[in-house]
Amino acid sequence: MSKNIAVILAGGSGSRFGRDLPKQFLKVAGKKVIEHTIDVFEHNELIDEIAVVTRPEFISNIEQMVVNNHYAKVRKILQGGKERYHSSLSAINAYMNDDDNLIFHDAVRPLVNDRIIDDCVKALEKYEAVDVAIPVADTIIQVDEKDCINSIPIRSLLRSGQTPQCFKRGIIDKAYKTALQDPQFVTTDDCGVVRKYLPDVPVFVVKGEVFNMKITYKEDLFLVDKLFQLKSQEGSQEALTEKTKKQLQGKVLVVFGGSYGIGADVARLARDCGAKVYCFSRSLNGVDVSQTEHVEKALREVSEQEGKIDFVVNTAGILVKEALSAMEYERIQQSVNVNMLGIINVAKASYLYLAQTKGSLLAYTSSSYTRGRMMYSIYSATKAAVVNLVQALAEEWSNDHIRVNCINPERTKTPMRVSNFGNEPEDTLLKSEEVAIASLNTVASDFTGEVIDVKRK
């Protein structure tokens, strides 16, 4: 039976980066670049196995990384060579089934996503060679030896290549065997080898993403770090997945802010799946998330009654639509206390319980977290703080196997929104139940440190 094997090419020396340590081992967004890359393939449901190809002096580093991260799919750590194609050949020779799909990916492209990988695997059902590329944004010119324009190719036909590059193992093996007989063989690109030496084999191009960039120069590291901060996943909101329903059955879920809106829908849907749900809010039972003792007492009571807590969801929030110069200090303090200090209190108090169950914490942000908006200064600032807190805690708590994520819903019809905006056309708003479905699907997922976008269909 054929398998989908991700081959992570990590043989770079880092010479162009200007550092002794190769760029794949530098840290960005709290992890080594290569760890981010492996994580994506480790959690992709279509990938059966992972092989990492690296320089001999870094094999022990990769081995330790695999152990520390509990990577279940990394089955081979292979030695590469001086040139990139030596690393490709190492993986080709390590696998013998010609029907296997070899999915080559640069270790220094950590922002590859499931959509790209899934499209590549699907394309391999029809094609024997698959590339990933994006349309070029600028006009490309070709010059002569005097730096004068020689030709201007048609831009609509041009693409900028990325990875993964994917092949039936038998095809890429055949291409390289032919290429290695050519005394003038030079390449930096596996698809180029197939195109040149097996010209009758079509190479299909899957649409890439602009953010699927390669870290080549030190300036790229700063850009990728920012992209990780803004990185998001699209949440599934149409229905609870079968995995979610199974994960919720018999689990203990605590919802802060569960009296109405999204929180109430989260509680209702979770109960329908057989979860034991406890809701706390100021209107329900006087629990104020800005008060540390309130949060600690609520969680302690649930733990004493049920013996565990598996999931904690904090939907409590305040939206004050008002210019800062006109806001009373009491309103400012209340917004900061509920929106920012509230999730800090919930997170800190939940830690010990979630560490015991390897559970999940879910918070909520807003689309204004990426850039503050007029009339929303305090709200936007607190929602940006939520994202940073979630991303930081996902790293801090990774060794405890606690997953921490936040939901970023578009405009949603809730009592809080109605009180600020009045009646709006129904078709311009999300339903709170849609956000609740995406929330529970996230709680039950393997995601951590992610911003989950929920948008109107």
What does this structure look like?
By secondary structure, this protein is an alpha/beta fold. It is 40% helix and 20% strand. Helix 9 links the parallel strand 13 (252-256) and strand 14 (276-280). Helix 9 (261-272) crosses helix 15 (432-443) and helix 12 (329-357) packs parallel to helix 13. The chain is elongated and about 80 Å long.
Gyration radius over CA: 25 Å
State the secondary-structure class: alpha/beta
Termini separation? 38 Å
Beta-sheet strand percentage? 15-25%
Read across the widest sheet, the strand sequence of neighbours is 5-4-1-6-10-7-11
Task: Let me know the largest β-sheet.
Answer: 7 strands, mixed
Helix content: 25-40%
**Beta-strand segment tally:** 20
Query: Which stretches of 5+ consecutive residues score pLDDT under 50?
Result: none
Provide mean pLDDT, rounded: 92
Q: Please tally the helical runs, counting DSSP H or I stretches of 4 or more residues.
A: 15
Sum up the overall morphology in one term: elongated
